[in-house]
Design goal:
The protein is of the alpha/beta class and 379 residues long. It folds into two domains: 217 residues, TIM Barrel, CATH 3.20.20; 132 residues, Beta Barrel (Lyase, Ornithine Decarboxylase, Chain A, domain 1), CATH 2.40.37.10. It is 30% helix and 23% strand. The protein is built from twelve helices and 19 strands. The two termini are 12 Å apart.
């Protein structure tokens, strides 16, 4: 499925997203919040959100208020939690548009209370406890005071404490000691909240890895992210097989030519042909999402055969030495996909450049690379 006149594109299978959410739901009795931040991990936030809801998700998770507003502007009415915002941003608007807000400290709580008074509506909040990630969330010494302040605000009708939540450090390594330690810290924070008169509707800490490997962490709500898009956060072949990668990144050969032996390719001549050979010019570069670290390492499939990026990845293009394989202008170049056609996967690219599959898919889908949908509401 090619967009007319496109020389490169990202294809997103919405049915795969729905199927992945159904798979995740089958592994838990908790509600599922599909995380669609980062433009749906590069898959398109709105389309991914709709596909996830069609698969049985009942909540959506985003970082920024702008992301939450984009969902509301798209007529998506499901509960949405936003967890990365600054005091001074349009919190009253968020409250008016039924966006739940994470609160990680007194300053953020004060900002929400001011916005609640401004809007004349009760703000829905989720109190976040830092159980060891040392990122967002109130520390253990700060936690009792935050809960007490939120409880008073709830009694005053300014907020509704919908949830208490946290985030794992290392759930992608099942059995790692940090997960048990964080789970214990989270349980203690919940007990403290209960002693102070706060019993939230939802307790949530489980990310994709925990959904798939630690049912004891599921509580009332789970928050899968990368698994929604068919990529596994853990090195487990059975889990990989249960998920369907939703993104395929591909392009068309822009130029094909014959080079002689000993010819350097691309900036710095970090690759030199060892024989007379055919090369293909691919119109994708680091401005489009291809990591520059994929120079001399990124795998591609051309005409049924796997090759490796030859020389440095440029801003707009890279070259592939294909040996004696026949290649012509317009031939398809598969960077990564489900692997069903023998093409590399996002995991293969992550391994090649020393990163994680999250980064590979999130890079793609820029303005210059059209995103095309199949399945779901696109059909």
């Amino acid at each position: 499925m090619w967009q007319a006149d496109a020389q490169s594109q990202v294809l997103v299978d919405l049915d795969a997203i729905s199927a992945n959410v159904r798979t995740l739901r089958s592994r838990t009795t908790a509600q599922v919040m599909a995380v669609v931040k980062g433009d749906g991990y590069g898959h398109g936030m709105v389309a991914s959100a709709r596909a996830a809801l069609a698969g049985g998700a009942t909540w959506l998770g985003v970082c920024t208020l702008e992301e939450a507003f984009n969902l509301r502007d798209s007529m998506i009415t499901a509960p949405v939690l936003s967890w990365l915002w600054l005091p001074g941003q349009p919190l009253a608007r968020a409250i008016e548009r039924d966006v739940d807000l994470s609160v990680a400290g007194q300053t953020h709580l004060a900002a929400v209370l001011g916005a609640a008074r401004e809007s004349g509506r009760t703000a829905r909040i989720h109190l976040k406890i830092d159980t060891g990630l040392s990122r967002g969330g109130a520390t253990a010494p700060e936690w009792p005071q935050l809960v007490e302040s939120a409880a008073k605000a709830q009694a005053d009708g300014l907020v509704e404490i919908v949830g208490i939540w946290s985030h794992f450090v290392y759930a992608d390594a099942p059995g790692h000691a940090t997960t048990d330690a964080q789970l214990a810290a989270f349980t203690e924070a919940l007990d403290t909240a209960q002693r102070l008169g706060v019993t939230p509707q939802l307790r949530h800490i489980a990310n994709s890895a925990a959904v798939l490997t630690r049912p004891d962490t599921h509580f009332d709500l789970v928050r899968p992210g990368i698994a929604v898009y068919g990529l596994s956060p853990v090195d487990d072949p059975a889990i990989r097989a249960a998920l369907r990668p939703a993104m395929t990144a591909h392009a068309r050969v822009l130029l094909a030519k014959r080079l002689s032996a000993g010819q350097g390719i691309s900036y710095g001549h970090t690759y030199t042909t060892s024989r007379d050979t055919n090369v293909a010019l691919v119109p994708l570069g680091y401005a489009d999402g291809v990591p520059r670290h994929a120079s001399n390492s990124g795998p591609v499939l051309i005409n049924g055969r796997r090759f490796t990026v030859s020389g440095r990845v440029c801003m707009d293009q890279f070259v592939v030495d294909v040996g004696d394989t026949e290649v012509a202008i317009g031939d398809e170049v598969l960077l990564f996909g489900s692997g069903d056609r023998g093409e590399p996967t996002a995991d293969d690219w992550a391994d090649a450049v020393g990163t994680i599959n999250y980064e590979i898919v999130t890079r793609f889908g820029s303005v210059r690379v059209p995103r095309v949908y199949r399945g779901g509401s696109s059909s």
